[in-house]
Amino acid sequence: MKTKNIYIMYAIALLQGMVFYGPIATLYRQAKGVSVLQITIIESISLALCLLLEFPWGILADKIGYKKTLLICNILYFFSKIVFWQADGFFAFLLERIMLSVIIAGLSGVDTALLYLSCDNRQDCDDRYNSHRVFGIYNSLQTAGLMAAAFLFSLFVQDNYSLAAFLTVISYGIAALLTFALTETASPQTDRRTHSLIGLMKDTLTNKNLLFFLIGIALFNETHQTITVFLNQLQYVKCGLSPSAIGYIYILVTLFGLCGALSYRITQKLGNTRTATLLFSIAAISCALLAFTSHALLSVLAILALRISHSLFLQPF
Q1: pTM score, two decimals?
Q2: Residue 95 and residue 74: Cα distance in Å, rounded?
Q3: Which of 57, 92, 285, 289 has the most Cβ atoms closer than 10 angstroms to its Cβ?
Q4: Residue of 260, 219, 2, 248 whose CA lies nearest to 128
Q5: What is the pLDDT of residues 189-241, one digit of tens each?
């Protein structure tokens, strides 16, 4: 039954959210001999690969089916976590990130497409299998897995970075095994999707306002990603915070990322332009504050403000 897919995808979302090394991802890399400059180089290469691979992966996913695509990507996901766990030095972590780029590009839209095709969206259907409700639960379980892993890290793992990476390997290995139990669903015609994507790219490149807007979003996303995932840990260490405290702050920042649901009310009152200006301004002030302070509370508040502004920005636009 297709409804089986929904529950399997729920479990996969929870397990793949459980990145136990999340609170100390940068510190882990530094402990393995990778500098901050090398981390940013790796991230730049990873982003470029994601952009290059997404279009061909989309075509391939339509040809081989969503289950096979998920299976390939989740198995690669599992192996990438093994590489991360055993990595030592720049090139090993670069390999892990290249693998991750392939995975992210391959999974882009495939998980939600399989979920949607597994739902029953008739008006008289059981509400448990309505796509809106299913997507809400799916996204919430990813966040729940992330917070559960961060809590366990703060409580038990703490300074044992290798254990955090190993536990993540176990979690992703179980997720890969669960993928075998999925049932294939029908995918749209490849030719139709290819033509629509090419048309969309042409429209985007010829619309100057839209192009600048997308560039702004990309820069905002990368700033948020770099600071809240990598540079935040260096800031916390500079402020004298312990690994346990960093884990609890990570949980708090993740929770505040759920505030995007409030964006509709803010946009309704201020309008799209004022809301975008306000959120970009908050993000810029937060970055400036982080550049000049070594105070723990101010640093945490600045990172929270950046996370909140990014979460609110993504929803209405």
Answers
A1: 0.79
A2: 17
A3: 57
A4: 2
A5: 544 455 555 665 666 667 666 677 777 777 888 888 888 888 899 999 999 99
